[in-house]
Amino acid sequence: MRAFLDSLAVLSFLGTVLLLFAFAALLNMVRELQGKLLQAQAAVPAAPAVRSVDRFGSDDGLPTFVLVVSEHCPNCRERAHRLAAVAGPDLPGHAVLLAAAERCGEWVAGSHVLSLIDAALLGKVAVGATPTLVKYSADGTEEWRRVVGSDDDLDAFLAVSHSERSSA
Q1: Distance from C-alpha of 66 to C-alpha of 97, rounded to nearest angstrom
Q2: Contact by Cβ (8 Å): 69, 79
Q3: pLDDT digit string (tens) for 149-163?
Q4: Domain shared by 3 and 34, yes or no
Q5: Residue 80's pLDDT is what?
Q6: Which branch of life, at top level (predicted)?
Q7: Are 33 and 75 in a shared domain?
Q8: Whose CA is closest to 95, among 73, 119, 120, 69?
Q9: Pairing verdict, β 94-99 and 142-147
């Protein structure tokens, strides 16, 4: 019986050694794939750090807040309704809703929000997620962009912009 247990221990030790070699091989494969991904990312030209969109410039010196939305996004619809509710004389700038679908314009109908349904312009703004709020200065230069997850986020981003103007 002792010999059987000894041989079982030796076999389990050999199995452990084989598993370590297998894990080392898998780790090596993962590192090679990571290297290839990094090379592929380096080959893609980086997006410009500052984007400028003349259409979002303003003659009155106020910034433009562009809420980029997509049609089938319930969160986008909620943020659009909130922007429509807060847009007006108290908003320290112009409010724009940018989308590719006509239906999105209905979300802000009858408010102070300008609805732009323009797929080409949407591609030029090029956000990674919706809804995203993008702030453009009076000359149409992008100042920042933020993904807007809630009405509180939207209010906070608009308030931060207001406090930036007040402290300037």
Answers
A1: 6
A2: yes
A3: 898 988 888 886 554
A4: yes
A5: 93
A6: Bacteria
A7: no
A8: 69
A9: unpaired
Q: How far apart are CA 48 and CA 62, in angstroms?
A: 24
Domain membership of residue 145 as a residue range: 54-167
39, amino acid identity: Q
- pTM of the complete model: 0.67
21 lies in the same domain as 79: no
Cα 91 to chain center, whole Å?
23
Q: Do 100 and 75 share a structural domain?
A: yes
122: confidence class by pLDDT, cuts 50, 70, 90: confident
Closest CA to 94 of 33, 31, 132, 137: 137
> Which tens digits make up the pLDDT trace of 17-37?
999 999 999 988 988 888 777
What average pLDDT score do residues 75-82 get?
93
Burial of 90 (0-12, 13-18, 19+ CB in 10 A): exposed
Q: Is the pLDDT of residue 165 over 50?
A: no
